[in-house]
Amino acid sequence: MNLYEITSFVLSIISASTPLLLAASGELVTERSGVLNLGVEGMMLVGAIAGFATAHATGNAYLGVVAAMVAGAVISMIFAVLTLTLLANQIATGLALTIFGHGFAALLGAGYVGISAPTLPKISVPLLSEIPFFGPVLFQQNILIYFSFVVLFGIAWFLRKTHAGLILRAVGDSHDAAHAMGYSVIPIRYAAIAFGGGMAGIAGAYLSLYYSPLWSQDLAAGRGWIALALVVFSAWRPFWLLAGAYLFGGITYLSLYLQGLGVPVPSPLISALPYVGTVVVLVLISRDRRRTRLNQPACLGKSFHAVA
Amino acid sequence: MTKLTRRGFSTVLGGAALAAPGIMRAARADAPMKVGFVYLGPVGDFGWTYQHDVGRKVAQKALGAEIVTSYVENVPEAPECQAVFESLASSGHKLIFGTSFGYMNYMVKVAGAHPDVMFEHCTGYKDAANLATYNIRFYQGRYVQGVIAGKMSKAGLAGYVGSVPVPEVVMGMNAFLLGMQSVNKAAKLKFIMIDSWYDPGKEGDAAKALIDQGCDLITQHTDSPAPLQVAQSRGIKGFGESTDMYSFAPGTELTANVNEWGGYYTQRIKLALAGTWKTTDTWGGFDVGMLKMAPFRNMPPDVAALATQTVADISSGKNKIFTGPLTDQTGKVFLPAGTTMDDGTLSGLQTLVAGIEGQLS
Question: A154-173: per-residue pLDDT in tens?
Fold first, then answer.
């Protein structure tokens, strides 16, 4: 491998990992507030078509990203109203949101099949982007790749260092205690769900405006589910999430790359790896029950109903 | 009324065997015949399923008020599909097309339970009195692509983005490289299987990996334009799949296999309307117009002329593509000189010709 090949290898891994990281970051915050939203795939698809349609109409890919974020957040509110206000089961509602999002995005996108829209440009930092390897990898990426890191570090800081982050975690770990302390459990969870929806929408826009710039019905192709698996894989910790996203993205790309070199890698096995990895990690972390309890939000998936 | 009476008469006299055509004629007189299509992907995939739906529309337009067509999309190759065929058959559809290989065993079951309904299965190999099979000789188009690739690739190394290593894909890779080697003896082919027929992200990644490994031309056996878009962004050439994907990569697409199902669908539905439909096993190519090439673009005129000539030679039967001597990867001759591979062997092909890098796993 020469330097050019190594550079483009790393670039390919970054671009395959970013949508997982974006969607999983949002879901991490949602889950830390005690809400399990299985609708990530559906929200991604709605974001993808909203972003694509907006970019097509306005000629501006950045407006597409904004529209995708808004669309993802809006669609997540269906889930929020059903589970938080009407106390519906979160798992069933989340699954319904994925199925709904899949169909709704296809309906919206029917007229956008087979056409092109503006794509997200790469931002080149003058001079720095000329440095071999580090230039293309660090200083010549599209805005969402930088954004995915900014958001992840922001989340890590928010959860660990801020008072608001502490409250969010309290809501996720014991909504009754948080409620007794005088915190508004439901509004906080609404906000966390909206954040998760917005991030899933942005991940969708990344797919339709950069990664494979087109609209088609199955564009997400299961990445929403991998993002969900990633959150569990990371044991709800942001930096493990970052590592996991790059591990999953990296494995997928590496398996394709190895095949090209003539190494017989069975591709179905590779498709299954993210899920196998998640199961293995679950088994490993649950060997120590105390640690598991320490990490998993204790109220994850439970409805909150304020008594008095 | 007379027709209805006659139908009743023939049913009584001739029994079940005559009943089916009788019902057909009656249906034609009273109401348009219902024709159903079952699709694997969304009609919006802009590839395999999209092209089948174009075919459905061609047939609907050609036959107008005589038929009503309907389709069910996103039907998985799993037990669910049996329920879809069952519900189409029991809701009055007289002719039902299933357009994916994995429907085969389910279609056999449903066809057995509905002897009065005609079924057609695309890419399958099991037939029955009321179950026909049909397919396109896609490999012919891939050979033409290979000829173009042989002329256009400076490295003499092309990349093939594949789905799963089924015979259809294996014969496609072989045909592509044989075409390439017909103009450049030293040509080689690398491939990557992505374990999906449709995943734009992975298809694009596979194309990137192939380009990173020195391929300066990309072709694909998957359904989205993503590999072509990657080729465009890397400044090399590529081929579209199933449909003309020119709009996604105007400076990049050399040509594409274009699946033309419309003529076949129209002809088969006509036979059903006339009551003369019989089970068949159709494997059509350039000669019957089931396969076409998208316009030859982004290449010098002499290459385009050579490609046009290749299409003509395949169409006339002069070039049968899989003719010996053919050597496998280990250097062993698996098809002796002077022989042509028969369709049975071809449709079960699991051997890669010499010059393809990598093994099937």
Answer: 999 999 999 999 999 999 99
Q: Name the residue among B340, B132, B122, B358 with its Cα closest to residue B242.
A: B122
B2-137+261-288 is classed in which CATH architecture? 3-Layer(aba) Sandwich (3.40)
Q: Are B103 and B44 in contact (CB under 8 A)?
A: no
Other residues' Cβ atoms within 10 Å of the Cβ of residue B111: 26
Query: Which fold, B139-258+292-357?
Result: Rossmann fold (3.40.50)
Distance of residue A175 Cα from the nearest chain B Cα, in angstroms:
39
Other beta carbons within 10 Å of B332:
10
Cα separations in angstroms, A136 against A121, A125, B330: 13, 10, 41
Whether A214 and B209 lie within 8 Å, measured CB to CB: no
Question: What does the DSSP assignment read for B91-102?
Answer: TTEEEEEE-SGG
B204 to chain A, closest Cα gap in Å: 7
Residues of A in Cβ contact (< 8 Å) with B42: 106, 216-218
Output the pTM of the full model: 0.82
Residue that the structure tokens 């439909």 belong to: B277
What proportion of chain B, given as a percentage, has pLDDT over 90?
A: 76
Residue A98: both structure tokens together: 């994925």
Q: Write out pLDDT tens, residues A176-216.
A: 999 999 999 999 999 999 999 999 999 999 999 999 888 88
Measuring CA to CA, which residue among A301, A296, A228 is closest to residue A39?
Answer: A228
What count of other Cβ atoms lies within 10 Å of the Cβ of residue B137? 22
> Residue A89: what are its φ and ψ, rounded to 5°?
-65, 130
B43, A216 contact by CB (below 8 A): no
ipTM summary value: 0.80
| DSSP letter (8 states) at residue B340 | B
Would you list the DSSP string of B272-316?
HHHT-----EEEE-GGGTSEEEPP--SS-HHHHHHHHHHHHHHHH
Contacts of A222 in chain B (CB under 8 A): 199
